[in-house]
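<tokenise_the_fold>
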Amino acid sequence: MRTIDLRSDTVTRPTPAMRDAMARAEVGDDVFGEDPNVNALEAEAAARLGKEAALFVPSGTMANQIAIRVHTHHAEVVLAGESAHILRYEGGAASALAGVQIATIGRGGLFDADDVRAAIVQGSNVHLAPTTLLAVENTHNTSGGRVFPLDALEAATAVARDRGIATHLDGARLFNAAVATGVPAARWAASFDTVACCFSKGLGAPVGSVLAGSRTAIDRARRLRKLLGGGMRQAGILAAAARHALAHHVERLADDHANARRLAEGLQKLALPVDPWPETNMVMFRTTDALAFLRAAESRGVRMLPLDPGRFRAVTHLDVSAADVDEALGRLAELLHADPALSPVA
């Protein structure tokens, strides 16, 4: 039985065409700035995101944590949405590496200008840590790949800018937001001093992210990448995969979004409540017993990720077709027939 892996879009494997691009990649020492594919990728990514410069880094976590270090000092506060990736899934790096605290605002990863205005701390009160950075995650992972509304995003970042606070966009899946809305990535990034994007999620590359911003910010980021051990040598093999992804895998994200809706419709028919309705490539649904459901699904070759008690995430991606979605739904129907109690509305 073939496994249908819906745990994350990070499980994708390089396509044959991507592997060919990697095999043919011209390389050099990137720490010396001599890798032609890395240099080309950084220029292409900066142009796509509307920024002066960009830096290729091994992971999205490193991109975010470098950005935090660029914009903050120890004992300062970063504002972020509820359950932000930089708080929940980056191993406590913000406190360990940058010495900052993260304060969450809003609900479900979204917030507005009033939330930002109310949370900012500035002034000379020595008891209070000052706010120096606003971070936005778009799309927002734990709320189901939700797209941060553009008008709310622009209003929130305007408050930060007016108060002299830096802004960072955790755009790990920014191209999902761009494809879902038709708003170009550069427009989403325009309100931010720095923006991070991943190539190893929906775009299907095996490794790598990019951090983009002003030349000054990226010069600082390059120094921090080295400090954190992220300087790579003949990284053009990886950059070639990322360049292929940018050229060939962005528009096809619409297929993942359509498959997520197809999956959501099928889960609803199986009495597995979906909430929220997918905007991009993530489907959140509920069961009664997450552990029992997980074991039953995996025994039938369907892999998904439990996020919270009774709540699952299923992610569509490059390696999941519409036929795979239908096959997964058929297998889930079998397990629910065997144990109807796993459905909350059985």
Observations:
- The chain has a mean pLDDT of 96.
- The chain is about 40% helix and 15% strand.
